Amino acid sequence: MSVPDYMQCAEDHQTVLVVVQPVGIVPEDQFFKIYKRIASVSQVSIRDSQRLLYIRYRHHYLPENNEWGDFQTHRKVVGLIAITTCGSAKEWPQTAERFHGQKEVYSATLYDSRLLVFGLQGEIAEQQRTDVAFYPSFEDCSDVEKRVEDFVESIFIVLESKRLDRATDKSGDKIPLLCVPFEKKDFVGLDTDSRHYKKRCQGRMRKHVGDLCLQASMLQDALVHYHMAVELLRGVNDFLWLGAALEGLCSASVIFHYPGGTAGKTAGRKPSISQPADAGKRHRPGAQEVLIDPGALTANGISADTSTEIGRAKNCLSPEDIIEKYKEAISYYGKYKNAGVIELEACVKAVRVLAIQKRAREASEFLQNAVYINLGQLSEEEKIQRYSILSELYELIGFHRKSAFFKRVAAMQCVAPTIPEPGWRACYKLLLETLPGYSLSLDPKDFSKGTHRGWAAVQMRLLHELVYASRRMGNPGLSVRHLSFLLQTMLDFLSDQEKKEVTQSLENYTSKCPGGMEVITLPDGLKLPPVPFTKLPIVRSVKLLNLPVSLRPHKVKGLLGQNMATASPFIYSPIIMHNRGEERCKKIDFQWVQGDVCEVQLMVYNPMPYELRVENMGLLTSGVEFESLPAALSLPAESGLYPVTLVGVPRTAGNITVNGYHTSVFGVTSDCLLEGLPGVKTRKLHFLSSLTNSSHSTKLHRSAHTPQPMSKEELSSTVSVQLFNGETQQLTITLENIGSEDIETLELTSKIVSTKEFLSWELDEPLSHLPLKHGQAVTLTVNIKVKLDFSGQENLLQDLNDDGISVTGLPISSPLRQVLKPRPETKPVSSESGKAEYSHIKTLEAVLNFKYSGGAGKVEGYYRELSLGVHVDVEPSVFFTRVSTLPATSTRQCHLLLDIFNPTEHELTVSAKNNQDLVLHASECQRMAIQVDKFDFESLPQPDQETTRFTNPKQLEEERQHAQGCQINSKLGICWSIISFQWLQASVEGVLNQLVLEHLQLAPLQWDVLVNGKPCDCDVIADCKVGDAVTLEVKLTNLSKNSVGPLALTVVPYQDYQNGVQNYDLEDAVTFIGSNTFYIDTVKPKENAVCVGALLFLYTGDFYLNIKFQDDSAGRELPLAWFTLPSVHIKALDAPLQAGA
Length: 1141
Fold this sequence. Notes:
Pfam families: Ig_TRAPPC9-Trs120_1st, Ig_TRAPPC9-Trs120_3rd, Ig_TRAPPC9-Trs120_4th, TPR_TRAPPC9-Trs120, TRAPPC9-Trs120. 29% of the residues lie in helices and 27% in strands. By secondary structure, the protein is α+β, with helices and mostly antiparallel strands. Among the domains are: 10-168, 3-Layer(aba) Sandwich (Rossmann fold); 439-531, no CATH class; 535-556 and 588-688, Immunoglobulin-like, CATH 2.60.40; 877-941 and 955-1000; 1005-1133, Immunoglobulins (Immunoglobulin-like, Sandwich). The strands form 10 sheets. The chain has a 6-stranded mixed beta sheet with strand order 2-3-1-4-5-6. Strands 11, 13, 15, 17, 18 and 19 form a 6-stranded mixed beta sheet that branches. Strands 38, 40, 41, 43, 45 and 46 form a 6-stranded mixed beta sheet that branches.
């Protein structure tokens, strides 16, 4: 026997073997259809008995195996069912002859046979025969199973008779010696009368009867016979048959302990009525627990009454003893070279039993022994079968990697060099089955979580073999998929040279069959998932970039609360907030706009030792229609983190989710999802409806230089200009609609970064051109008017002092012209810091914000904003370094003295109202005297009480001084001009101090003196005639907030000789008509009072009147400046004499 039956199990010893074979020409599909129906009758309950007969069917069985039927009766073919087709009666004799010829093959062991004839009808078919059944067709054969059951019962009758015949043989005849085929020649010439020979015969017969009892479902009897056979055969050292007896004992015990079988779920048998589930009562009904006594054997035969045999051991082996007896039996089989198949099958049976007992380590020892059993020259097909069964058995006991090893050996055997036509498909199928054992799966997702499982070197070898097998199968698509999987999952374990070789092979394969993301379905239904190249390149982070500043949408503040739905009526719910935490992390806090190019930045890394070319790289999105604009990039070897920007254009509004990106590397197209990347999350973003878009350009009447950095605020663009203090410039801005939507609204606001507002504009004319269609432009003008402080500061005085001018000895407020001397050579004037310090250039910055909207985005309440930065460098034009006042001849006027410095490099002209122009050379300082009327500051608008209550007093004072300064500037009208510039204004507001303001303020008490009805003030000289009465009128106007008076004024005349001598002794020259003292009663606010007197000049000459207040006057509580009366100059003339002359 050279071909083992690897599917055998211990319970097969209880079965009878029936061969089902075709006779003549029978369609294969029809044969196996009938064969399956026959095989369904696997156990038959014998009538008039509680026993079952188990049948094992085979459609192919070697006759040489049948020769081992005496050794183990379950190997003996006891039944033959032949299936044939016969179309006519003429063919019947030939068919019958063939059937008889088939029976001759197994004639030595057959108990009974049957012939199933299909297609024959007529007289022959109507004949009643027990061994032949006629059916008109393969479809019309409903009683096949019934006939098979009858056939099995006939086999049982023969089996039972043989069992009884052998068990009850008490004649004096010698017991025949049962032999295996290879023993027959060894027993020729032996002494058949020796005691040793007789015991051998008895032992082998006992073992044979045990087999028959086991087949006849007499389990307890079989156990008794096996025990007795073991004792007999052990005594004569008949090791081969001793092993068979031990194996029979093990099989019977296994059947007793495991009525469900050991062949697994598919081949397991149902427990019969003779094998109840209760393990403690599994004996055959009516049988009792029997103990044997080997010494109870008779000399001439076998005692038939086993119930009288009492021994020292129980019949049934324990589960542990079963394995020990299997080991012993296998060791005996191993002594015989020709019993290799028996030994191998015993190992397989023991492994199945150990698998049931979950004793994997001991089972592996049996399998290891089976590996080294030599069965002689095996065909390639037999080798494949052997390794496949070993693999299945290792899988059965949980040795998955060992199972995969033998499965792979079987796969390699399928394509051995000695096979004329290698079976690459079978090889590929077996290799796929080895993957789980090596911790491999064909899904790359299993390799993206946690640490790597399994031996990478073995896994790579197996994947290479899968690639080669797929190529030899003629399926390059499979090769590409497996090679892609190898490169993606094993990249960290490949050397630089291996990486290069794998990628070259992949490029060769993809040149014939490009790789994609489709699922590959194999013929057996196995699906190979796609393999995205998430490591070529490796993406470390994904960042959605906001739109440029000029394109970002802004929500109208009044509409922020609209379109916002709440999922809960509660202000805060910890449950909802917890559930939505992850969603909020994924949501981006800015928005993209439909129709605009949007950017996503990926930080990628090239792990390959050479340049990596990535083609057709774009975004994978969901939610809205999104047009991805693919990019191609080339990453240097082991590049480190490298930024890559992917762009796209959303075509509709709504929410978008950036799920991943797609690439094409080495000819393989990959869709890489962010969810599978470590540390990278899916990003969600909201898209607005389309908004209009515009650009702007600027134009200055004077060329602008390079702008300096402004604030940190992001600007669309900037413009810079350099102006003199007090100069005005116009900035022309052109706005063009470069978007697809119309511009429907436009707003312009400014944000001053430093100092006060210096920009102004008019929007009426540009707004009249709205809506602005695509390609149209509108122009608006912004006025830049700089008016900073014109006062000279302390650092300027220090600069002047450094240049050799004595500030203390010769004040720069001197009316003399002071020309600055050149700076010493040692002072680093040429340095940038020196220039900046000396030139006193100041900077003004502002941001012009253009808010515009249009299209569907305007309906939703969104707008866009363009920001134009305006940078103005202000150079000083004139400096008012010092200011003072001198009284004028009129009480309502005074002289304002200004020290003016020209800090420019040009000649500068300064003018004021009613004053001569003053020309200043570069770096020159001069004084200008300006006669001005005093100012009534009380007439300025006063803040109301509400404002006064809630405003800082310091701020109120600053506002008051500013209003006073503006009034003074408007009265002075100081202008300056350089070269061909127009006249530009200058302000003295910065140099005015409190004392100067007091001098410039009109006194609250206004005194008017009239001589003969004419006012006398300034240099006005009143004329009168000698001897005529001169009317003197003093008028007081109270402009203060309080009442004033009563007051007493005394008029004292005097003459001034213009040499410092004044004559007050004029009693003979001037006479008062009435008193020289004037009395004024209390004058209420906003009212006036007038007192009138008269005097008479007796001589001609120039007389002056000094009007003084009496010391005891109540008005002395008020400031002295309030009581300043104009001087009165009267010239007395001798009118008649002059006329006569």
